Amino acid sequence: MKTVNVKIDSVTLTGLPRGRVNKNRLDATSESDIALQMTKDGKDAMQDAAKFARRVRRRLGLSQLEFSHRIDVSLETIRNWEQGKRRPTGAAKALLKVLDKAPEAALSALG
Predict the structure, then answer these.
(1) What pLDDT, in 10s, does the model give residues 63-99?
(2) Which of 4, 23, 48, 102 has the fewest other C-beta atoms within 10 Å?
(3) DSSP tally for the chain: helices H, then strands E
(4) CA-CA distance, 80 to 106, in Å (whole number)?
(5) Which is more confident, 23 or 54?
(6) For residues 42 and 67, what is the distance between their CA atoms, to the nearest angstrom?
(7) Residue 5 falls within a domain, yes or no?
(8) How far apart are CA 70 and CA 24, in angstroms?
(9) DSSP letters of 91-107?
(10) CATH no. for residue 50?
(11) What is the C-alpha to C-alpha distance for residues 103 and 105, in angstroms, rounded to an integer?
């Protein structure tokens, strides 16, 4: 992924990359269209979190029950994460990231 730094003049808004906007389509977008898209985006994010939690567990070669014991989280919580009913947040999300990047160290620290 390429990162582009842009300096923006807040008075004239120069420096913004030029893009194409379909103003007719933008004007035709209703509040209900926006709400539907937000719902879809939320569902997509839940599925992404579910796939991530499942992938981390599988990379460790653990069943849901074994994984729940190793990270001291209830089996129901693991299932809810993997089924997209709930998303890991806060410390649980951070733990999954560490387990993904440095599984040996994380599991060793967890005992």
Answers:
(1) 999 999 999 999 999 999 999 899 999 999 999 999 9
(2) 4
(3) 6, 0
(4) 22
(5) 54
(6) 26
(7) no
(8) 54
(9) HHHHHHHHHHH-HHHHH
(10) 1.10.260.40
(11) 6
pTM tops 0.85, yes or no: no
Show the domain range for 35: 23-110
Count the residues in the chain: 111
On whether residue 14 sits in a domain, the answer given is no
Tokens found for residue 89: 């947040």
Among all chains, which residue has been given the structure tokens 């990231």? 97
Structure tokens at 32: 């209900």
In a domain, 4, yes or no: no
Q: Which residue bears the tokens 């890991």?
A: 88
User: What is the per-residue pLDDT across 12-36, written as a single tens digit (0 to 9) for each?
Assistant: 666 656 677 788 888 888 999 888 8
Tokens of 101: 């990047």
Q: Looking at the 3D structure of the chain, how many domains does it have?
A: 1
Chain position carrying tokens 């007719």: 24
Q: DSSP character for 18?
A: P
SS3 content of the chain, % helix, strand, coil (to 5): 65, 0, 35
C-beta of residue 84 within 8 angstroms of C-beta of residue 46: yes
